[in-house]
Design a protein that fits this description.
OB fold (Dihydrolipoamide Acetyltransferase, E2P), 5-stranded antiparallel sheet, alpha+beta, 557 residues, rod-shaped
């Protein structure tokens, strides 16, 4: 009996020494039954607890638990009102997960998890018991429109931050994609060589070019390398998703940037330019672009030339090229110069049309009468519009015979239609001189054609003034001053003449510049007297002047 008592005491003592598990720790247990959606687990120490089956399930999967399984659970309380242990499989998993994750974080290792929910600013991820936050920006390399296909998939994540006290974990999926892309890029780039022709898929199109996927790595195909001709926007040539053949132009080993070209795989049209477009030949082209200094004309795909503003028009000098040609217009141009090194062709537009000054000089020789509109009035004359869109100038001195140029120009207004005579055409200097006063000929030159100094002419009195008389000879007007009216002082009176009188006068001067005849009655009288003396005796023979003049007059009669 005593033995039995000792044995019992020893067992009791042993049971006291066996620590009961501490609340708030993870304990081992065995599944002894499954009923009503719960697993009943024996955690030893004569304690059993219940756990909902869903705590044994991974997100989106069926619970994995069976009678006889050994499991770890978290002991929240040793006994509840029903005398059962309060246990949790989920909390045990969380503790377990945190230990594992902290180690992975310290080692900078990837962890596996599954996205299972959506929250503000991102998603929730189950990392095998611990819940982490995946910010929207960390889901993929490019913004993701629909994360549906990623939900519930087991995949690797990188831990960016964790704080066990607060229960915070932040993870990234993007960091892993970038890493694998970098590896993939490095591999693709290692297999590429400059000058190699490869196929790729157009992924993206921008203003300045297109990005082409060469199988995990993108290359930039610049707009200037797409074709030999001018391309205004890459979308003229490419569409997204299209497979294109390109040449690797350059690989930058440091930045891993790849430059691609398409035109390099085609023949360079410039190799044939000199043969196809000889100097001075005329071709039809299309205006592709207009700038302040000229217009670009495409002679064939890939070959463009510039028509400089100075070669656009014979007549429109300070005009913007856009006023002369328009984009897409077909024009005839002449090849003026080819620079193969600079890939430049200089073209002329005006050279395909005849020089209008040349045409004018052929159709309007000097002396031709023309009619045109007064386009402009300047301090030195009038500009008059002529056929062929050119102007002629009437200098002040060519406006009128009678008036000073400064006065005569006051009679004209812009827009007046006037007649003039062509006096000179200078094709080189692109100048046409006109004369208005020469219309109807030169009256003075015609009137004085046969007159010399010393001639005696008959004039008609047209006006009487205090200082003398105004007379007219064959339409040319002149003025005889008082002192020239007679050799006799008493007879130098203008009033002894009447308008309409015919008077013989001597020409003392012909001034073509001022277009005036110098006339004198006094000079005629003196000349007559001198002649009479010579004819009818010298003053030394004793005959008086009265006798001589009498004889001379008799002889005249």
């Amino acid at each position: 009996m005593a033995n039995a008592m000792e044995e019992f005491e020893a067992l009791l003592q042993e049971s006291f020494e066996m620590d009961t598990p501490e609340e708030g720790s993870v304990v081992k247990g065995k599944v002894i039954a499954i009923e009503a959606g719960q697993a009943i687990i024996d955690v030893g120490y004569k304690m059993e607890g219940r756990v909902d089956l869903k705590e044994f399930a991974e997100p989106g999967e069926a619970p994995k638990v069976a009678v006889g399984d050994d499991v770890e659970v978290y002991l929240r309380a040793a006994e509840n009102a029903r005398g059962e242990a309060v246990i949790s499989r989920e909390m045990a998993r969380r503790e377990e997960a945190w230990d594992r994750l902290e180690k992975a974080y310290a080692d900078d290792a990837r962890v596996e998890g599954a996205i299972f929910g959506r929250v503000k600013g991102g998603f929730t991820v189950d990392l095998g018991g611990a819940v982490a936050f995946l910010p929207g920006s960390q889901v993929d390399v490019r913004p993701v429109r629909d994360a549906g296909p990623l939900m519930g998939l087991k995949q690797p994540f990188q831990i960016l931050k964790m704080d066990r006290r607060r229960g915070n974990i932040v993870v990234s999926r993007r960091a892993i994609l970038e890493e694998s892309r970098a590896e993939q890029r490095a591999e693709v780039i290692a297999n590429l060589t400059e000058g190699q022709a490869v196929e790729g898929v157009v992924k993206n199109i921008t203003e300045y070019g297109a990005f082409v996927d060469l199988g995990g790595v993108d290359g930039l195909l610049h707009v200037t390398d797409m074709a030999w001709r001018r391309v205004n926007h890459p979308s003229e040539i490419l569409t997204i998703g299209e497979t294109v053949k390109v040449q690797v132009i350059k690989i930058n080993k440091e930045t891993h940037r790849i430059s691609l070209g398409m035109k390099q795989l085609q023949d360079d049209p410039w190799d044939l330019v000199a043969a196809k477009f000889p100097l001075s030949s005329v071709h039809q082209g299309r205006v592709t672009n207009i700038t302040d200094y000229g217009a670009f004309v495409e002679l064939e795909p890939g070959v463009e030339g510039l028509v400089h503003v100075s070669e656009m028009s014979w007549t429109k000098k300070n005009v913007h090229p856009g006023k002369i040609v328009s984009t897409s217009q077909e024009v005839d141009v002449m090849v003026l110069e080819i620079d193969g090194a600079k890939r430049r062709v200089s073209l002329g537009l005006k050279q395909t049309m005849r020089n209008p000054w040349e045409v004018f000089s052929e159709t309007h020789p000097e002396g031709t009468e023309v009619e045109g509109e007064v386009k402009n009035i300047t301090e030195f004359g009038l500009f008059i519009g002529l056929p062929g869109d050119i102007d002629g100038m009437v200098h002040l001195s060519d406006l009128s015979w009678e008036e000073r140029g400064e006065d005569a120009i006051q009679n004209y207004r812009k827009g007046d239609i006037v007649k003039a005579v062509v006096s000179e055409v200078d094709v080189e200097k692109e100048r046409i001189s006109l004369s208005i006063k020469a219309l109807g000929g030169d009256k003075f030159a015609e009137a004085t054609g046969g007159v010399k100094r010393g001639s005696i002419v008959t004039v008609e009195v047209t006006a009487i003034e205090d200082g003398g008389i105004e007379v007219e000879y064959e339409g040319a007007k002149s003025f005889i001053r008082r002192s020239d009216l007679s050799r006799d002082r008493a007879e130098q009176r203008p009033e002894r003449f009447s308008v309409g009188d015919k008077v013989d006068v001597r020409v003392t001067n012909i001034d073509n510049k001022s277009r005036r005849l110098g006339l004198s009655i006094k000079a005629r009288e003196i000349a007559e007297e001198k002649e009479a003396v010579e004819q009818y005796g010298s003053s030394a023979s004793g005959a008086s002047l009265g006798d001589i003049l009498g004889a001379a007059l008799k002889g005249d009669n």
